[in-house]
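Q: Can I see a sequence and its folded structure?
A: Here is a first one.
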Amino acid sequence: MIAFLAAILERFVGYPAWLTDRIGHPVIWIGRLIDALDSRQNDPEKSFGSRKIAGVLAIAIVVLAVLIVTLGLQQVLRFLPFGWLIEILLASTLIAQKGLRDAVLAVARALREQGIEGARREVAHIVGRDTAELDEAEISRAAIETLAENTSDGVIAPLLFLALFGLPGAAIYKAINTADSMIGHRSERHAAFGWASAKLDDLVNFIPARLTAGLFALAARAMPQADPRAAWETARRDAPNHASPNAGWPEAAMAGALGFGLGGARAYKGETLDLPKMGKGKRNLTAEDIATAISLYDRAMLIALGILAVWALFSMVF
């Protein structure tokens, strides 16, 4: 029930920008701990094996610290008369349902109202790739790919762990996911130190990624222009080609459902990577296609909330 109510609260309110400016955000706080451990324990003078062990210890420290804080907080709140209200408020900060939608919608709005330059600025806020040379189709693909992938990472996964394991479960998931985004890449500095974070992130996202693909397929049934069968078939065909064992599932499912062609070449810090394509449909995407993807996202979120509501009621009765 806390997971359901937290999702409802976040859907309509989100995490206010003014609050981020004043006190930050739980992900920012976790990120500071990860950054401190990276600075102190990731010694480039040490061997690859030593740095790998240091990375294992670092993610263990992060997970343990988050567990101690959130488990203690949850236990205190559940002794208070209305502590569950505070727990809902805290849990809502770990979900990015509204924030993700707003950020992607801002890209479509910029394409319509500000042109390419404005859209490049907006999409740069939500993607890690180089954006200075992107055209309208590339900007649109980047926004839709981010929407698809982060539906799993930012919404479905934290909700699942929140429903299963309470506030500590969602917080630990966000800690692992944040560590992966900060140190889990294969750069010279983090190939060894971030190895454990990357592997752990792959593990915790295995089920949520496939659940998200399934949600997109179900949501496609409620959209006249979408194809639910193609959503799942595209995910099964194209997702295994993705470098990540998980990221390709929601991306390919959305591509198949809407008849889009996602993925492909993109540049990171001046280096072009030829990534696998997800879906075989339209690649000359526009702001209207971003809006269509958001419509599919909205339907998937309503289905997820419905499932949570049924789960909560079942738990209360039995």
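Q: Show me another, different protein.
A: A second, unrelated one:
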Amino acid sequence: MPHQGGTTVSVRKATVIVYRAGWVAFFALVLLDLFAGLPFDRFWVWSPALLPLAILVGASVRSRRMQRDNPREAVEVGVPVRGRWSALNSPADRTPSHGTHGYGQTYAIDLVAEPAQGARPGFKVLWPVVRRNRDFPAFGEPLFAVADATVVHAEDRQRDHLSRNSLLAVLYLLIVEASLRDIGGVRRIFGNHVVLDLGDGVFAVYAHLRRGSLAVRPGDRVRAGQQIAQCGNSGNSSEPHLHFQLMDGPDADTAAGVPFRWRGLEVPGNGETFTAPDNTVPGGRPTP
């Protein structure tokens, strides 16, 4: 059985590589056709995109079938933040919560800090086009381990970019930036991120972390409630926030999402505000 599992993971990884190679070939041909002109029919310029699109559709169908035929019980974990926050793209409203099963995001949730009504800058159509990260109360907020775990991946070298919460900036994010980041893979999508092994084949991901804020490194053992990083705005992110998810493997390229529930707190729906209790003491150990 382990061999079968390893074979499955290898096939998924190879499929992901082919998927990204197809997009690279497509964009390369488009650029060549625009600036140099190609001697063959325009269909062949667009044809490399057919393969990654087919892979995308196939992966989506497979994920939906697995979700339907092999439903997983939600795993109970702690809350990764403290204080008053709001939820976006919540699995409490729909799955896949982010519109895709890719990168293990089926049951992912986005969290933005809302310490008071109106403290978080809202979306603007025209101006300002972008904002500084420090304008958002989530930036620099501490993030906590949701269970006793082992750190299997941690990186925080990517920069925190400006917000993408105006119409022009969002269009840039969706049309240009997200496509290029998707080709770049997990680290470009998640930005600075940490992966925790919670045991029993369950892994927790904290994404879009602040550069230089990691308090852990691969191999570390962490306790539930221990601070592991700070909230940032790296990767495929529109504003400083925490992207949190559980999955069944350490590599988001090949893992499937795992549903979760929070201990002592109902998982909020889109736009719902909640207050996570501060149940930690200095040193990162949870109080009884």
